[in-house]
Amino acid sequence: MSEILPYWAVFLHGLGVTVVVTILGGVVAVATAFAAGLAQLSTHRLFRWPAYTFVEVFRGTSMLVQMFWFFFALPFFGFQLTPMTAAVLAVGLNEGAYAAEIVRGSIASRPRGQDEACTALGMGRALRLRRVLIPQAIPSMLPPFGNVMIDLLKATSLVSLVTVGELTFQAQTVRNTTAQTTAVFVTLLVLYFVMASALALLTKWLERRFALDRPSGPRRRGAMRLVKVGVDA
Amino acid sequence: MPQLADSPDPATRTSAADSASAPDRSKPMITFENVSKSWGDNEVLKTLTFEVMPGEKVSIIGPSGSGKTTILRILMTLESPDSGVVTVNGKTLWDVKPGTKPRETKEMKAARRDVGMVFQQFNLFPHMTALENIMEAPVKVLKMDKEAARARATELLEMVGLSKHMGHRPPKLSGGQQQRVAIARALAMRPKVMLFDEPTSALDPELIGEVLGVIRELAHSTDMTMLMVTHEMRFAEEISDRVTMFDHGRVVERGAPHEIFKNPKEERTRQFLKAVLEH
Amino acid sequence: MIWDQAFALSIIPKLLQGLRVTVEITLLGFAIAAVLGLAVAIVRRIRVPVVARLFDFYVLFIRGTPLLVQAYTAFFVLPDLGIRFSALTTGIVIMGVNYSAYCAEVYRAGIEDVPPGQWEAATALSLPGTTTWGRVVLPQAVRSVVPVLGNYLVQMFKDSAVLSAITVFELLNAAQSIGSSNFRYLEPLTLAGLLFFLVSFPASYLFRTLERRLAPAR
Question: Where are the alpha helices (DSSP H) in B20-171?
């Protein structure tokens, strides 16, 4: 164990990259989830079908295959992505495809009364979505998204296979240098476990705060006030 | 519906094995001694003491939350008392000193065999047919030969009027039919004591009669000890030897049916009966 | 024309070989996961002293660490301990162990969904523990979670690609090796992705439909 201690900086560097990839991947995932989730709720087939196809294709193929494809196959179309870009794209799009169901489900399960109130007030679809439905749906989305973040964290280990220098990659480096196989991998497992547990605690907190069956969420400005006027929500 | 008294009644048919534990008429079948039970701050049973003699049919009435169901559940070892002693057919079911944790003992298991229960929600095994539901315990617990168990189950189904449905699974049966199968299932184990926990409360009104009919037959043609928690006051009056009024974990009043229903001594009993019988 | 159709067609047999290995890993691995997961779930539920707590941690730890790192650990550390499995065996075992943790949680939900009345009826009939579990609870619990288990089976099929990192010759590895020896990655990787999709999409659709059809019964 003590033989690998001098390499703490290498681990730290890898940890930093892991965090970066997780966050960037998370941003891509959330954006993708909203785009695909909302598109599936659209009344136009033009939006629904591409979204549906995207979600099924990305869910139906392996994340690693997607990552390798972005890194090795895309160049044949003229796009040379950096390892980091290919990695973040693959992780984010894949997780986003799974998370699209969270967005779609949360919004679709809002009580009918909201839809009807908006129609009665003369609000168009876009406005209704933006100011009424989505803000109300977000609290119930947070706990499942917490789980998505944990999945993202674990997925970042795969990006080591396209030469991104995150934690697993650096651990391999240390292992190759010191030949302390057991110590390195035990440390690696523990580090991931600690991070995942931290995220899990955060998710549990989110669940307690924002679970669907709680009648009162946090008080929010703007859209919530709009809804409370003249509607028995 | 074939009368339970016409055919030899499996519930009390005595055999060599049975006479060893045939009830001694002079000793109580069930005893509760200073039994207490609390759920948090709520004292559900307060140093309850009572006896039930062999062959007695006792109805327990009272408002929800009064502890009536808890009595049955403790007898069936579904719940444990916080303190007190409970015996069934001379064997100790529970003996809990205050502050100690109740444990399952060999004697408890033996005592439990003498008790059968019919639940408000029937609790039939949905993935087995009516016949299989009734056969399961005799085969697995009494180590009965499968064919013998099948014959007995068929007989019991006939007695509750459901021979046509022996191959049906619970989802295909009405509530009344399910409850009758549940009664047959409990009887298959030849209990000395039968507990009925609001057996008709979960039934559509028009199905209540067929279940009460089976219970009535049991009450009239067997000398099984029966303890029933029910809201069916007229039925309780008809078949009981004794009625007990329960409230807030204590016995409010007990006596013969006509005494309790026609001339209750306690104000609480009067209040309760007035409210219940008014609709 | 970027796509080389002739090349694509020529590599299909090799890819199909890789697919065979992938399917083998999935079926064997899931068999391990399903059985091991059930054992873990039962032990946790009846709270066997010491072992239950251990299994609690086991589930948490496996679900909280990446599959790739677990695979590396098994592949590189086990030989040091004197255990020499082939890469394929290591891969199958690690998939089985990893997914047993998820299956254990699925079984747990299934067992918790069995109405308390079923347990009470079993007590009222003095059914012994083995009968209660084997004839009353588990048949109901397992039946209700088959669609969810099915989804995990499909997921394992896709996750098996990770084993390419420990030199298992499954589908992704086949595609990568074709790519690196011919300097053309487009066709092998695209076809590999297509093969993954052609198997997992119908299977996943089937299990999702099953899940939705069984859900209203709850």
Answer: 68-75, 106-112, 130-140, 146-159
Residues of chain B with pLDDT under 50: 1-20
In this prediction, residues A129-157 reach a mean pLDDT of: 88
- Token pair, residue B162, equals 């459901």
A/B touch flag: 3 or more CB pairs below 8 Å = no
What residues of chain A have any CB closer than 8 angstroms to a CB in chain C?
A: 56-57, 59-66, 68-69, 72-73, 75-77, 150, 154-158, 160-161, 168, 172, 175, 181-182, 185-186, 188-189, 192-193, 196-197, 200
pLDDT at A130: 74
pLDDT digits (tens, 9 = 90+) for A55-80: 999 999 999 999 999 999 999 998 88
Asked, for residue A175, whether it belongs to a domain, the answer is yes
Please give the DSSP secondary-structure letter assigned to residue A45. Answer: H
pTM of this prediction?
0.86
Report the number of distinct structural domains present in chain A. 1
DSSP at A183:
H
In a domain, A210, yes or no: yes
pLDDT at residue number A120: 79
The confidence score (pLDDT) of residue A227 equals 35
Instruction: Give chain C's domains with CATH numbers.
Output: 5-217 (1.10.3720.10)
Fold of B28-277: Rossmann fold (3.40.50)
Supply the ipTM of this predicted assembly. Answer: 0.91
Q: In what order do the strands lie in the sheet with B115-118?
A: B115-118, B193-197, B225-229, B57-61, B242-247, B250-255
Range of the domain at A117: 2-228
Residue A233 lies in a domain: no
Q: Angle at the Cα of B198 (from B197 to B203), degrees rounded to 5?
A: 130
